[in-house]
Each structure stands twice: as structure tokens, then as C-alpha cells.
Write a structure and sequence with these properties.
The protein is mainly alpha-helical. It has four domains: 135 residues, no CATH class; 62 residues, no CATH class; 79 residues, Arc Repressor Mutant, subunit A; 95 residues, Serine Threonine Protein Phosphatase 5, Tetratricopeptide repeat. The chain is 61% helix and 6% strand. The strands form two sheets. A three-stranded parallel beta sheet has the order 1-2-3, with helices on one face. It has a three-stranded antiparallel beta sheet with strand order 4-6-5. Helix 19 packs antiparallel against helix 20 and helix 19 crosses helix 22. The radius of gyration is 26 Å and the shape is globular.
Length: 428
């Protein structure tokens, strides 16, 4: 896909997903931004429509119509929109529905590529295929044949592979080329030996990454890869904030280590053409994170705790929540939700807040009346006025017996608003 993006004459919009993009608002913000990055005149109407959707002033249908119409009005040339690692968000039914309806409504000048490790489960897929709107590439399409393997090794590594050797390697791996790409540093030394290794009952990809990539690195780079894999996206400044200074070799800066990882071509991708921020290829990152968890659980926990505190201080609530959940620290998650509640409500992130509250054990609300009041507010804003009022009243009763006067005042205001929405003006 990267080669295609560089070689095609069509403008390419690229949206690289991460696990946080499961949130519908975040997905739409980045979806719009990925197009406006290539076409700056696009995005104003769609962004305004998104705010209306979040504030429950419009529907998803109206939002999709605005997105499609703005493309029609502002983008007249053919272009490609790549949504990379779609499997990370495929469990969100609203995102799947949006993609299905967008594909059916957008003009023919928009060409969407969904890259995923799994088969797509988009609604109306059979209809889209029947209408000729969708094509796909499966494992067989992606597999190399012997001639392609010879061309690859000649072009990338200056190695002339004999036809019989290429045929044998293709037969042993079913065209699985990733092993060769992962072995770029070794310049394909001992290809036949690796072929025998892979043939033996089928080599697991993570085992291959350990044997041929991670274990081949100097100790300093080996450790740096493991630790930075938890950062998701990083630059030298974030390394300085999160990683222990004792992990940095004397005389070398974090930027020096990043430069060495880039020089060794260790599956790290710059985020934007001029950005200092990087991320690892998702497969390689998954492998590194699992290896760190298995071999150095204390380091893993220390890094996750520092990341959670770092993002919470900067009020980047979603990232802080993500790392606290990974730590399985539900008490800290509840503290975060209490702190983030009002900012998220003011930002219109009602669905996100509802999801976070819904994931907490019910016992947490009995012990935390401020959290219970927040839940009552969310229920009210989502239209469940009776349950919201009942929840707020319970929270107020509990808060009244504490010295948490600020939380009590907030809960009373929330209940008054709920009464007003319910038409009970005297109670309000």
C-alpha cells in the first residue's frame, strides 16, 4: 500500500488507525482530517455536522449526507482514501455502518481502501459486492510466486536467487514473504537454512521476529525496542518523560537511539513527512509488547504507570484511560473518570463517558457518590430522565453525609436541570 501511495498519480489520503479510534467521535474527527490534509478546502461543513451529531442535534444519516455532499462540492478529482489497520475498530457497529453507507453514497471519484488483518464484517457487504462497489485481495492474491521472489531479492538485496531455490522457498512458505523482508539486515544470508527452519512445522511469526530481528540487535537497541513499544507513538521528548534515565547509555541521547532504530530499518514509521514522532509497525509492536510483558513485567508496569500519569496531567483523558485499563487499576480508572467527567461532558463526549462508566463494576458507584452523580447526569443527557433523576437523588443523599460540598453542589445542579427537562419546574 505504501508503494502504491508513492507511485500512483492520484492524491492519497491516509488514516492509520489505533485502538483509541474505536470511539466514534475520535474516528470521525480523524476521518475528516485525513481528507482535509490532502484537500484543505474540505472539512468545515463536516466538522460542524459532527459537532451537531455529538450534541444530539442531528442524526448519523444527516452527518453522512453532509460528509458526502462536502466531498462532492469541493473535491472534483479522483482520489484514494486508505484506512489502515481497520481490524482495530471493526467491533464498533456504528463505524461499520458509517463505512457501508458512505461507500454507497459517495461519488465515484472517491476510492476507499480498507486494510485489515481480518475479513471485513461491514453491513450490506453482499449488496456492495453484487453492485460492483467492492473488490478485495485475499491471501492467495498477496502470496509471491517464484519470479516475484527472484525480482524482489535482486532489487532489494542485490542477491540473484536461482529458479530452483526460489521455487523451493515458495513451496515451503506458501509464498509467505514476510520472513525475507524481516531479514533485510542479514542480506538474505543462509536462505536455504531459513527455508528449512520455516518448513519445519511452520514457523510462528513471533518466533521468527525474535530469532531473526530482536535477538540480532545490540543489547542497547534490543532494550530500547522493548521499552518504546509501549509508548504507541513517541519522540525523543516523550522518551525523556517516560523512560528511566538509567536505561539510556552514557554519551547517547534518546534521539541518538531513535536515529539508530531508523538507520537499522526496524519497522518504525514516521508520523507525517516532517514529524519527529514515530510508531512501530503494528505486528512488530504487538510482538515487542508481548515480549516485554513476558520477560520484564516490572518494567512494563512502571512504563504504563508513567504513561497514564503523563497523559492525565495533560488532560488527554482517552490515552490516560487506555493505559490505566491496561494496568487493570480500576480504582485509578474511577479516579480518572471523576476528574474527566465535566471536561468530557462540556466537550460533548457523552458516548465515550457512558462507555467508560458502563465498564466499571456496579460496586464502585456505591462507594463513590460523586461518580454516581456523574452517571445520573449521563443518563439524563441520554434521555433516560427517570433513571437519571433516581440516580442523582441517591448520589445527593450519600453526598449530603460527607464534606464533599463541591460534588454535592454539582449533583444538586444536575438534578435541577433534569427536573427542568422533565417539566417539573417547581422541583427544579
Amino acid at each position: 500500500l505504501v508503494d502504491f501511495a508513492h507511485s500512483t498519480e492520484l492524491p492519497v489520503c491516509w488514516y492509520a488507525l489505533d485502538p483509541l479510534d474505536r470511539d466514534l467521535y475520535r474516528f470521525f474527527v480523524h476521518f475528516i482530517a485525513s481528507i482535509s490534509e490532502q484537500f484543505p478546502e474540505y472539512g468545515k461543513a463536516s466538522s460542524a455536522a459532527l459537532e451537531g451529531l455529538i450534541q444530539h442535534q442531528s442524526t448519523l444519516d444527516q452527518f453522512i449526507t453532509t460528509v458526502v455532499n462536502e466531498i462532492y462540492e469541493n473535491i472534483h478529482e479522483h482520489f484514494v482514501l486508505v484506512i489502515d489497520d481497520f481490524f482495530l475498530v471493526e467491533d464498533n457497529a456504528d463505524i461499520n455502518s458509517f463505512i457501508s453507507r458512505f461507500v454507497q453514497q459517495v461519488d465515484e471519484n472517491c476510492h476507499i481502501i480498507l486494510a485489515s488483518r481480518k475479513l471485513l464484517s461491514i453491513p450490506d457487504m453482499a449488496l456492495l459486492i453484487a453492485r460492483g462497489y467492492v473488490g478485495g485481495m485475499d491471501y492467495e492474491d498477496m502470496a509471491y510466486d517464484a519470479a516475484e521472489l527472484q525480482a524482489l531479492t535482486e532489487h532489494n538485496f542485490g542477491y540473484t536467487m536461482q529458479p530452483a531455490e526460489a521455487e523451493a522457498l515458495i513451496e515451503a512458505t506458501d509464498g509467505w514473504i514476510i520472513g525475507l523482508l524481516l531479514s533485510a539486515q542479514s542480506k538474505l544470508r543462509s536462505i536455504s537454512g531459513r527455508m528449512r527452519l520455516m518448513r519445519a512445522s511452520g514457523l510462528d511469526l513471533y518466533d521468527y521476529l525474535a530469532e531473526q530481528v530482536l535477538n540480532q540487535q545490540p543489547a542497547v537497541i534490543h532494550d530500547f525496542l522493548l521499552r518504546t513499544a509501549l509508548l504507541e507513538e513517541f519522540d525523543a521528548a516523550l522518551c525523556h518523560e517516560i523512560l528511566d534515565e538509567s536505561w539510556r547509555p552514557p554519551g547517547q541521547s534518546w534521539q541518538d537511539l531513535i536515529a539508530e532504530v531508523l538507520r537499522r530499518n526496524l519497522f518504525v514509521l514516521p508520523l507525517g513527512e516532517e514529524s519527529a514522532w514515530l510508531r512501530y509497525n503494528h505486528v512488530f509492536q504487538d510482538f515487542l509488547q508481548k515480549r516485554l510483558m513476558k520477560t520484564r513485567p516490572d518494567e512494563e508496569r512502571l512504563i504504563l504507570e508513567r504513561l497514564a500519569r503523563y497523559y492525565q496531567r495533560r488532560q488527554l483523558w482517552e490515552k490516560a484511560h487506555y493505559y490505566l485499563v491496561r494496568l487493570s487499576d480500576l480504582s485509578a480508572v474511577a479516579d480518572l473518570i471523576e476528574a474527566a467527567g465535566l471536561p468530557l461532558l462540556y466537550a460533548g463526549r457523552l458516548s465515550l463517558l457512558h462507555t467508560w462508566l458502563d465498564e466499571l463494576p456496579s460496586g464502585f458507584f456505591n462507594e463513590r457518590p460523586a461518580l454516581l452523580a456523574l452517571q445520573g447526569d449521563v443518563l439524563t443527557r441520554r434521555g433516560d430522565l427517570q433513571q437519571g433523576l433516581a440516580t442523582l437523588s441517591t448520589a445527593i443523599t450519600q453526598l449530603d453525609s460527607t464534606d464533599a460540598t463541591i460534588y454535592l453542589a454539582q449533583a444538586l445542579i444536575r438534578r435541577a436541570v433534569a427536573h427542568r427537562l422533565h417539566g417539573d419546574y417547581n422541583e427544579a
